[in-house]
Amino acid sequence: MLLLVLLLVLLVLTFSSLSRSCAGFNCWVEPRCGVVSVKGKVVSLSGAAGGPGMNASCYHRLYYYGIGWGGKPTGKAPKPPTSIENLRSNFSHAGEFYYDRAAATIEYIFRAGETLATLEATATTATKQDILIVNNTHDVAWRDVKFEYATWLGSSGPKGFVDTQSAFIYGGGHNEAWGGSTIGGEPPVNIHVAKSQKVKFSGCSFSHLGAVYALGGDGGSQDLVVFNSTWESMNSMRAPNMSALTHYICVPR
Amino acid sequence: MLLLVLLMVLLMLLSLLLTLLLQAKFTRLLPRMEAIWTQISTLFASTDDALLLFEVYNEPKSMTAANLNALNAAVVPIIRKRNPKRTILFGGLKFMSPSWILANPDALKFPADDKYIALEVHSYDPYLYAQCKKCPGACASPKCGGAGPGCCAKSWGAVGRSGTVRALLLALLLALLLALLRADFRPPKDHWINGMKAWADERSISLVYGEFGVTHLQTAATDRVKWYVYHRQKALAAGMAVMVWDDNGGFRVLDRSAKPLSSGWDNPVLKALLPNSPLLQIKTEDEAATLVVDAGAAGDDAAEGTAAAPLRSLRAAQAAARKLRSRHPHVTVRLLPGSHNVGDAPLRLGPADAGVTWRSHDSTNPASVGAPISVTGWRATSISGKPGAVAPLPANITKGTKLRHLWVNSKRAARPTGFPAAVGACAAPYAPATNSKCTFNLSLAANSSSYPEGSGYDFSLTSIDPSAWHNPDDVEFVFTS
Q: The pTM is what?
């Protein structure tokens, strides 16, 4: 009896926790909505001024957060932001950097033990989304190679994520059934395998990669093997995206 | 005459004494062997039978056949207690020589009804060819078969083994014809493997060719690779399991000191031994189909792409690999340690790049492929009262470019994040009264029921002044689920 009660309590706690952290849609991405304009004390975000043609996930968070399954409004209030990022006035913690785009400078606050003499800093820019594209080929192998240092900036651009799918990119239009937008391109990746067969990564490491996925396979690719490889210090949301693959093997080290 | 008889008697006595001493030694040491096998068979009892087999005694010698049979009879029951299906290897005297088995076909006793016992043989045949170290006699003596490499037998087929045949040929044929004959490999028809197969078939005992090999003093020119090919094929055709001898010395097949280790294979021999193995996809790189890339100063895109003259960029390697692919089914690009920067555009592999392997030259110091930009020129500064540094935007990043990520000492640096201090009350209906972080209202435009364009977050109820934000178009509102 006691066991049943404990199980019940556990179930209630689990579901109440889920409902607090992620209600209905919107559980897939962490939108970052760029500021479009500041007029007095009113801040407009991407997606706000331009409507659904702009950053889809921001639009959804602002105006359709309350939409449930099937596109029916729940009557809930739009979602307030959980934090504001890249404010110069918040730049005060060790390990943080502030990029002053207008002044073309990068500032950094040392972590414990760091000094100017030991500072080794590496950046990468928006143009470095993909570092490797394997497309329409076969029997390609990469062995014992470190793939590292790439990024993606599109999350705060006009084409953000589709809010209701796993980091797929907004494709335009407006469809409430899809939470306010239609699916466009594949999620951004740093190593991209498309329409290929027998592509193998073995003994490789994937680190310091900033796209949504470090490695992605799509376009009906087959026999993509990631073997004896490591994923570390990732900025990506997830490591491999293999949703569109068949015959895929991934063996962690 | 009397002296000769006395000498013979003395020799017989000495022989008898030696036999008695060996027997005493065997009797004394047998319990130790039993103890050793008790420990071994206990320790490995749970190891997969397909991955481990036991050899009772390597290359028996200095004992009688009776001793050997007694040893096997003592050890096998010990092993079988915990390893009922473990393969056990017996070996004959004279270093497991097949010649001893053929000369004494019934001397080695096998337990009845144990189908997991096999016979192991070791052979380096002919010895003066395969075990080529230094010929014991004069190089030109019949024992040495001619002044071959290292002064040992320089061929091992029928021609090479028979001094008589060789002499006749030498007398009859011209030098050119002799050279052609020497290159014409002809193995002996009465090879011991034929005899062993008949022996095994008659007794239904499996055979394991547990050691064979040729030293590196023999070369391809003296048919070393052909020797491996022949023995492998012959043994497999006879139903033998085959294990090559590799002492990482004269019989080396894999050079353990090679970096990377996978580059240390003796590829012709490996191919002779494992012609269909997946290992060959990695190990038997044709030097002519391998390109080397050095991203450092030693690299040059106009170079040939050899280890001595490496290419510099990935794209030059890609172009060179495409040319090689027209002549080779598989091409390997070896990347030397360092940062192989793809630059402003990704490395794109397409249909013309099929069959190319890109790999680090040294797996223990792997090459890096990516798009890093070093940030240098730091100078110390104080930030919010804490020690920090400031650096100019790297010259190869265009001013105005967005920059989202920075890694310092290999760790990701975070962007400033937080929430402005809460000031003022939250107003209904859009800001939930229970949200303690609420510092502003959502200000919706008139057509908010459908597409509320023109609206935004209104901080007018707070002391926060967004118009004072530095670089406001780099500020992002974050919505964590």
A: 0.55
